[in-house]
TrEMBL record:
Organism: Nakamurella sp. A5-74
One GO molecular-function entry: pentosyltransferase activity
A biological process term (GO) from this entry: lipopolysaccharide biosynthetic process
Name of this chain's protein: Glycosyltransferase family 39 protein
Chief place of localization: membrane
Record-annotated Glycosyltransferase RgtA/B/C/D-like domain positions: 151-285
Membrane-traversing stretches: 55-76, 141-161, 168-186, 192-211, 218-234, 240-255, 267-286, 323-343, 350-371, 377-398, 410-437
Length: 577
């Protein structure tokens, strides 16, 4: 049996699967309409050592760990991220309450809270004390431990990307691992005690389990997929969307084999396997569904500071624009090429790769939008890009062997563009890692404020500033506008401290309730200001040209700050009496 013109098969060359195709691979089905389960990328070079991709993976994992390490200690002992406290405090609370059930249902974070609690217990055991007692004395090490666990999940996602990519070609795996390791938003969120990277890792594992099911549609592979989906739900509620690729591959196998009885058995039993797994992982998510429903209803609205007020198409485009901005034109083209190849090949094993699509459509229905919610969507984008890059490189290498000079020149330019895109990803990652190791404006400003007598007790402040590192405060609760003048409700307040992490949201808020207060504050005398390099949010820096990244790193190493812009204004002195 041969494959002619298969995706990545070397520009239409004929490949003997028994000799060179990945284990279990057959042809891509040519122009037949039948849904198949063949690989999209036939390995046409057997001279390369089989160990080479594994060696590359190990190198990528080591490099990925290195760039994530600076984030483990980011900002500590100050807590600069608002969501980490929720996870760590409840993990400690489980130890205090002598229970293994979290008390919150917010995201719900149950998997992360439980594993972090186990890690904290182990740390307390080896440190010779109770973790909750040590936490009350100094919580720094516990936040570092929780972040370290997230790093491990991030590295797990890299390894899983390699496993998934390897199903589509020998070099697709290393390329997918590279993209997962050095995609800057992944790096930026891989060292935080937050659930987004955990969910990304688990959904990538669901993709892998679906591929296994397509290869061998057994109870074992189905159960693994259901358990992984339950773990994803215990991490973040949208993890339930991981069930869709499982259903899709069951149907795909039915179309291929015609075994209706097996398909019915698996479709009927899969929900029971999922619920049973969820009962084992976190039973309160099932037994206390009222709390779960309350969170789902509460978080689906748009009543949050900075909500965009966009329609559904606008919210969907928000994530497309964000993902495209980080990828750059070359990886966007590679993603579209990978999409074209998968659609053209009609290969069933490409179906699980699209797990990010229902996630994108589902999350876009929520009234709020956050950049970090796009991370699971990137699974699809990066895996398709890996297929596109791998196939493009194969074909470019073939073109470079052409006897026509202009064809060789175009192939060289195309190869250079792909390499430059990879360098840009590395540079964006280097900027992110450097930012984590750079002083934050909130930390730098605090000693100066204290030295100049500007403290919590005599100041009005909103949030994400030296006095409230990672929380939100509303100015109307502390100030009022009288005859166009800003007056503190407490006459002892003499200063206003504001942060761009909040006033940028306020100016973009469709409800202008808070905007008049910030406009009035800006008319006050400016006492001091701390401005970060590269803008107020490091997630807005990429995709940067390599030279721009080098410039930013040079500025950071020379003493430039990161974080929000912090501004301090003097309130007018109130007349006596």
């Amino acid at each position: 049996m041969t494959s002619t013109g298969g995706v990545g098969s070397g520009g239409g060359s004929t490949v003997e699967p028994s000799a060179e195709v990945e284990p279990g691979a057959v042809s891509d089905g040519g122009n037949d309409c039948e849904l198949t389960t063949q690989p999209l990328h036939a390995v046409a070079r057997t001279s390369t050592s089989p160990r080479a991709p594994r060696t590359i993976l190990l190198t990528i994992l080591i490099a990925a760990a290195v760039v994530r390490i600076p984030g483990i200690l980011w900002g500590l002992p100050a807590l600069l991220h608002p969501d980490e406290r929720v996870v760590v405090v409840d993990a400690i609370g489980m130890i205090t309450r002598h229970t293994f059930e979290p008390s919150i249902f917010y995201r719900p974070d149950h998997l992360e809270i439980k594993l972090d609690s186990l890690v904290f217990r182990l740390y307390g055991f080896f440190a010779g004390g109770r973790a909750d007692v040590m936490f009350r004395q100094d919580g720094t090490v516990f936040y570092a431990l929780a972040r370290t666990v997230t790093v491990l999940f991030s590295l797990g996602a890299v390894a899983l990307a390699h496993l998934v990519g390897s199903r589509f070609g020998r070099w697709t795996g290393p390329i997918a691992a590279f993209l997962f390791a050095f995609y800057p938003p992944f790096v930026a969120n891989s060292s935080l005690a937050t659930p987004d990277i955990w969910l990304t890792c688990l959904l990538t594992a669901v993709v892998w389990s679906c591929l296994r099911y397509l290869e061998r549609p057994s109870w074992r592979s189905l159960t693994v997929g259901c358990v992984l989906t339950a773990l994803a739900v215990a991490t973040k509620y949208p993890g339930a969307l991981g069930a869709l690729p499982i259903v899709a591959v069951i149907v795909a196998v039915l179309v291929r084999s015609g075994d209706r009885a097996r398909a019915v058995r698996h479709l009927v039993t899969a929900p029971f396997a999922f619920v049973l797994a969820l009962l084992v992982i976190s039973p309160t998510l099932v037994t206390n569904f009222a709390a779960v429903r309350a969170q789902l209803v509460g978080q689906s609205g748009s009543g949050h500071l900075g909500a965009s007020g966009l329609t559904y198409p606008g919210r969907a485009w928000y994530y497309v624009e964000y993902l495209g901005g980080w990828l750059g034109i070359v990886l966007i083209a590679a993603t579209l090429f990978g999409l074209y190849l998968t659609v053209k090949a009609r290969a069933a094993q490409a179906i699980p790769l699209f797990v990010g699509v229902p996630f994108w459509l589902g999350v876009s229905a929520l009234g709020l939008q956050w950049f970090r919610w796009s991370l699971p969507m990137a699974i699809t984008v990066l895996l398709l890009a890996a297929i596109g890059v791998s196939t493009a490189l194969d074909r470019l290498m073939a073109f470079r062997s052409s006897g026509r000079p202009h064809v060789r020149s175009l192939a060289t330019i195309g190869t250079a563009a792909i390499v430059l895109s990879g360098v840009s990803q590395l540079c964006g990652t280097a900027v992110t890692a450097t930012i984590f190791a750079t002083a934050d404006t909130r930390i730098v400003a605090l000693p100066w404020l204290t030295a100049h007598g500007i403290v919590r007790e005599n100041s009005v402040y909103d949030g994400y500033n030296p006095f409230r590192n990672a929380g939100i405060g509303r100015l109307p609760a502390q100030l009022e506008i009288r005859d166009g003048a800003l007056v503190p409700l407490d006459p002892e307040r003499k200063y206003v401290v504001i942060s761009s992490y909040l006033y940028d949201r306020v100016y973009g808020d469709p409800d202008p309730q808070l905007e008049p207060y910030y406009r009035a504050v800006e008319k006050l005398p400016l006492v001091a200001e701390w401005v970060p390099a590269g803008g107020s949010d490091f997630q807005g820096l990429a995709p940067l040209a390599p030279w721009r990244s080098i410039q930013l790193i040079a500025r950071f190493t020379a003493g430039a700050m990161t974080g929000p812009t912090i501004k301090v204004y003097a309130l007018p002195t109130l007349p006596a009496g």
